[in-house]
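Quick illustration, no need to memorize.
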Amino acid sequence: MSRIRIGHDSWTLDRASLEAYHCHAPEADWNLALDHAGQTLWLAGTVTPGPRAPAELVGAEVTVDLRSLDEVVGALLGRAVTLYPGGQDVCALGFTLAPSPAGVRLAAIVTCDWDRALATFPHDEPVVLELDIDAGVEGLHPGGLP
């Protein structure tokens, strides 16, 4: 089971699938399709080293594109959000991929500051973001996406 939690809100995902491209480069790009309640949300980022086979994803370092993180979390919350994982001085989210029955596990827990001008949360405190996503590997492409 895959889920995303932020603060006191939690969502279970119906399905998650990962595609990576530019895999012959030292750093590859990835897109993660997250199916939730009839919609597809897209999380994106980079993976190092570029994987040439699905098994090479296990132990690889991923970095999450924070704009895509804001879009996913904002869609789940139903309101705009700008997150600063690790606080405004860090503002980055990276972790190591682990094996899972589906293919790979994207898992991270991080405290996030957020843009108060958006009034996303009814308090002035940082929020904890937890990603625990089992994703099938749909494709590894040496160049761009087909």
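The mean pLDDT is 96.
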